[in-house]
């Protein structure tokens, strides 16, 4: 998937909202817009991240990091 700049992300979001206003489910609208983006940017090989996915990755629990620190103390 191509990497989208801010303007392209906004355009994609607007397109998704437009399709949903016409009665399409959010999943269908997202899938359609993603396909349109793929077709528009054929040959590009980069990842697309949506804002909510970034937030999920940033919210990683601290506990897993603490576990590693405890194991290192035994060495």
Entry summary:
The protein has four helices and no strands.
Verbal overview:
The model has no long low-confidence stretch (mean pLDDT 75). Helix 1 (6-21) crosses helix 2. The chain is mainly α. 67% of the residues lie in helices and 0% in strands. It has helices at 6-21, 26-40, 51-58, 63-73.
Strand and helix map with partners:
Blueprint: H1 6-21, H2 26-40, H3 51-58, H4 63-73
Helix pairs in contact: 1-2
**Which series of helices and strands comes N to C?**
HHHH
Let me know the average pLDDT.
75
Low-pLDDT segments, ≥5 res:
none
Strand segment tally: 0
Helical amount: 55-70%
Outline: globular
| Biggest sheet descriptor | none
Estimated share of beta-strand residues:
under 5%
Structural class: mainly alpha
The number of domains: 1
User: What radius of gyration results from the CA coordinates?
Assistant: 19 Å
Q: Tally the helices.
A: 4
Distance between the termini: 44 Å
Summary tags:
single chain; 75 residues; mainly alpha; 4 helices
């Amino acid at each position: 998937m191509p990497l989208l700049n801010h303007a392209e992300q906004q355009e994609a979001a607007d397109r998704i909202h437009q399709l949903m206003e016409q009665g399409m489910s959010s999943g269908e609208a997202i899938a359609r817009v993603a396909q349109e983006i793929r077709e528009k940017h054929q040959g590009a090989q980069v990842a697309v991240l949506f804002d909510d996915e970034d937030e999920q990755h940033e919210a990683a629990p601290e506990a897993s990091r603490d576990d590693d620190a405890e194991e290192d103390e035994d060495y």
